[in-house]
C-alpha cells in the first residue's frame, strides 16, 4: 500500500466516482521503474530475511532447516493487493 501512494511512482488522479467516495485513482508514472523497484526490494528482503539467517543457522551446525513461503497470489487480483498487475 505504501508504493500505491509513493509520489515518485504513482500519481493519484481524480474520477467522478472516486470524488464521491473519496478514493483517488492511482496511475503508474513509470511502469518499468516501479517493477524494477519491487523486484529489487523483494529480492533484498528475501536475502536479508530468509537466505542469510538460514545460511547462518546452517553454518552453526543446524542441518535440518527449511524456509517456507506463504502467500496468497491467487487472491491478489480480487483484493486490490497486487497493484502492479492493474496496469
Description:
- This protein is mainly alpha-helical and 87 residues long.
- The chain has one domain.
- Helix content is 48%, strand content 9%.
- The chain contains three helices and two strands, in the order E-H-E-H-H.
- It has a two-stranded antiparallel sheet with strand order 1-2.
Question: What's this, in brief?
Answer:
The protein has 87 residues and is mainly alpha-helical.
Protein traits:
mainly alpha, 87 residues, 3 helices, 9% strand, 2 strands
Q: Note the main sheet.
A: 2 strands, antiparallel
Quaternary structure of the protein = single chain
Q: Strand content of the residues, in percent?
A: 5-15%
The run of helices and strands is: EHEHH
Low-pLDDT segments, ≥5 res: none
Which strand order does the major sheet show?
1-2
Count of helix runs? 3
CA-to-CA gap between the ends?
15 Å
Name the average pLDDT.
78
Over all CA atoms, what is the radius of gyration? 18 Å
Sum up the overall morphology in one term: elongated
Number of strands: 2
Question: In terms of topology, how is this protein built?
Answer:
Elements (H helix, E strand, L loop, with lengths): L9 E4 L2 H6 L3 E4 L2 H29 L13 H7 L8
Antiparallel strand pairs: 1-2
